[in-house]
Amino acid sequence: MKKAKTILVILMLVAVLVAASACIFENASKIEIISMPKTTFTVGEELNKDNVKIRITDKNNEAKEYTLTDAEALGVKLTGFSTEKVGTFTATISYQDYSATFNYSVVAAASDFAGGTGTETDPYLVLDAAQLLKAGNNGYEGMHFILGEDITVTEKSPLFKGHLDGNGHTIYVESGSRLYVWHNVVDATIKDITFNYSGNVMMIKYALGNVLLDNVTATGSLTTSSPNTSAFIVGLGYTWDANYNGVDDDQPDQADYGKRTSNITFNNCVNKADIVCEDANAATSGYGFAAFIGQGFNTSEDCTYTFTNCTNEGNLTGISPAVLVGNSYYVNKDSHQTINVNNCKNTGVLTGVKVSFINKQVGMANLMVNGKPYTEADNEIDDTLAVYVQDLSTNISLNGKNISFTVPEGLTFTKARVSAVYQIYNKNSGINWAQEFNVTDLEIKAGETKTLEIKNYRVFGTDSIEAGLTKVGYNVYLDEANGKYWHDNSRTGDYTTKDTAGSQVSFAVLLFNNDKLVAVAFDTTA
Question: pLDDT tier at 358 (50, 70, 90 boundaries)?
Fold first, then answer.
């Protein structure tokens, strides 16, 4: 009996002591962090709360010290601390109306890069393609990187939001199919670096925000059967590109053009790469081909492209090649885009039906060249650097669902490349969307006529999804039984073909004689 009473008394004393400990916070007047031994953490590292010391002072100016572990048991809260992402952050320790903060940094684990902590003075050291890929895939926003060696890239990085110092090194980009070093570059700097191309490869698909390319050189050769061609940047990105994760099907409405102010700047950049663009879209449907920017997108916010001391030394071959900005009806006097050109020049040979410094179809009201409003004279290419090829467009006949093309007698050529771009039509907005395209060799001889069947592209709705059609492209489904394709850009069923005859088609044939372009033909259905 006495033993039971003794245990009861002890339990009551413990309860009183615990209550007393908790009560010290009822009159708290200040919380201080008196010991924070560690403020730099690697990704995924936990905070050792036993090493964090805080001091609680009440309104009678009496103070007690606790570890963060003990303090949390008494009601103190820690918020804002996470090591999921690289960067510099602020965390808060609080109780009732009082709080204290501390700054901390999260850096990549040592195994992610060859060295460095990601700061401007101590950048992450990148020695191979896998480390460059990690810099783009793991959310290292605002971090600094430096190349320590030349590297070869064969895989696209979805996103880059950092600052890369090439340190005079070269990134070799090699692929037989379409490959970008980065799909999207957002609020980034890339400087002192060379990109060497081999195949259907490019540097950046979309740029968004404040992007600076400084002392960047492109070399090698680029042959592409795709629209939107350039050695540097294809064009301005969509809003959702700022957080692109590489999965196209996860993206929202793709008609959401870049709703943020962007400044895309080229300083002391040189293109030495020879580029051949075989695609019909680059001439007939608003897509572009140029050494520096293939095309710009219309945007609801201001966008400025600035070129300073930039030079094209590469040979550009296609239907309508340009040096700085390619053909785009998105860039016009009604858009929010400005192009500033300062002390830029061309020394490469441009071969096509039309050649220009800034594509002649870019009707910019807000285009400035060397501080003065643009004139037609600013668009001219020196006669010694312009090669105009024969235009055989009158030899094309577009009849319903078929295309006929005739090569005149006596024309010498060794290769014919045919390109067809299919477009769909938004029945609500009236906007044409260029979607699927193909470029293939055409077996044809001088004096011969070929007739090609146009595949009828149509849009899938609920019925085609339920039918279980085979997916053959990005939101493109094949109805093999009827020989038709179905497409829905926003996955809402709002798209249909323009009329019963089929979708709009852009068609081109490029004739080469031992890799030298000698003639082209192109046309578009109504």
Answer: confident
Within 13 A of 322's CA, how many CA atoms are on the CB side?
26
Residues 6+ apart with CB under 8 A from 214: 189, 190, 191, 192, 265, 267, 268, 269
Residue 179: what residue type?
L
Q: Are strands 163-165 and 144-147 parallel, antiparallel or unpaired?
A: parallel
Distance CA 262, CA 293 (A): 14
E strands, 362-406, are: 367-369, 372-373, 386-388, 390-391, 396-399, 402-406
* 454 Cβ neighbours under 8 A, 6+ residues apart: 401, 402, 403, 420, 422, 502, 505
SS3 240: helix
Q: Where are the beta strands (DSSP E) in 87-143?
A: 87-95, 98-107, 124-126
Rg (CA), the chain: 31
Question: Which residues on adjacent β-strands are paired with residue 223?
Answer: 276
User: To the nearest 10°, the Cα dihedral for 87, 172, 439, 206?
Assistant: 20
Q: Which of 388, 311, 390 is nearest to 355 (CA)?
A: 388
pTM assigned to the model: 0.73
Q: Which amino acid is at 296?
A: G
- Residues constituting the chain: 526
Tokens of 191: 């400087």
CB atoms within 10 A of CB 376: 8
322 DSSP assignment: B
Report whether 292 contacts 251 (CB < 8 A).
no
Residue type for 192, please? D
pLDDT tens-digit readout, 85-127: 888 899 999 987 889 999 998 887 767 899 888 889 999 999 9
pLDDT tens per residue across span 300-336: 567 888 999 999 999 999 888 889 887 655 565 566 6
Residue 241 near residue 211, CB atoms below 8 Å: no
d(CA 392, CA 446): 12
Nearest to 415 by CA among 513, 276, 334: 513
Give the three-state DSSP class for 390. Answer: strand
Contacts of 297 (CB under 8 A, 6+ apart): 235, 236, 237, 238, 257, 258, 328, 330
Distance between CA atoms of 216 and 209, rounded to whole angstroms? Answer: 19
Q: What's the number of CA atoms in the CB half-sphere (13 Å) around residue 230? A: 29
> Could you say which DSSP state residue 149 is in?
S
Of 7-21, 34-48, 203-217, which has the strongest mean pLDDT? 203-217
The amino acid that residue 170 corresponds to is T
Report helix, strand or coil for 394. Answer: helix
Mean pLDDT confidence for 31-48: 87
SS3 assignment, position 451: strand
